[in-house]
């Protein structure tokens, strides 16, 4: 990383679209890290940050720093919490002809970076960047430390998936920045907006449930808040939640699975196969994945094709759950 930055003056950091807390925290931290190393740096969060991020920033009085685009003379682009081009779509034009760094806790698909900083065992992108800051001897500002702690807590499900280094880097962040841990925890609690609650309710009303032995697979569609709906479906009792949505000339699908399902099937592998079949882009990790198809495809065609793929992998047919 130091060698790559030696002759670089300007950089641009890009998160995945509609950045969650981990992605936004990772992006802001990398921006600050590069600035401390002497680079002029912009941050882009395509489609803006999520409502949870905005609430977190407001409660901790942290300014939103993302911009709409990068400077045209950037020499370096850093993708954070991005494992496939489908997560940035139109912004991929900013990458052409520039050095590219990817920082992520997912395996990278269809991206060929100059440098990849990948740790699939990490709980979050925030954990990776916090470790980078520590190893580079760079202390984060108080605001960046608060963001990184929030990102780690968010993506580790409040440390339920933490490893030893997660606790170590959290302790380091708290020590060097004098952050009030309870204040960060309080900022993570947020009341859902009416539109998000309505999206969840409509998604649950549209949901179809299937059973394979003692596994429950749930499919649904929604216009927005796909991840929020998928998480709600898991909490409702589904072992796997697949949610599809239409966006102009693009169809998207996200998947979320619990640990029980992880031991049986990898969502990353399933979504990569679907990407090849539909000529789209997809990937992720065993319990969380995303797919984008730039074509007019019925959302239920996509969902049922995914269900068919699950049947093939498990070697058995599903049974529709009815009243």
At a glance:
This protein has helices spanning 2-5, 21-36, 51-59, 125-136, 142-155, 164-177, 181-188, 194-206, 226-236, 259-262, 267-278, 299-314, and strands spanning 10-15, 40-44, 76-80, 99-104, 115-118, 208-212, 215-221, 240-247, 250-257, 281-285, 288-293, 319-320.
Task: Give me the secondary-structure topology.
Elements: H1 2-5, E1 10-15, H2 21-36, E2 40-44, H3 51-59, E3 76-80, E4 99-104, E5 115-118, H4 125-136, H5 142-155, H6 164-177, H7 181-188, H8 194-206, E6 208-212, E7 215-221, H9 226-236, E8 240-247, E9 250-257, H10 259-262, H11 267-278, E10 281-285, E11 288-293, H12 299-314, E12 319-320
Parallel strand pairs: 1-2, 1-3, 3-4, 4-5, 7-8
Antiparallel strand pairs: 6-7, 6-12, 8-9, 9-11, 10-11
Helix pairs in contact: 2-4, 2-5, 3-7, 4-5, 4-6, 5-6, 5-7, 8-9
Textual characterization of the structure:
The longest helix has 16 residues, at 21-36. The chain has 2 domains: 2-188, inorganic pyrophosphatase (n-terminal core), CATH 3.90.1640.10; 206-320, Diaminopimelate Epimerase, Chain A, domain 1 (Roll). With 323 residues, the protein is α/β, with parallel strands linked by helices. It has helices at residues 2-5, 21-36, 51-59, 125-136, 142-155, 164-177, 181-188, 194-206, 226-236, 259-262, 267-278, 299-314, and strands at 10-15, 40-44, 76-80, 99-104, 115-118, 208-212, 215-221, 240-247, 250-257, 281-285, 288-293, 319-320.
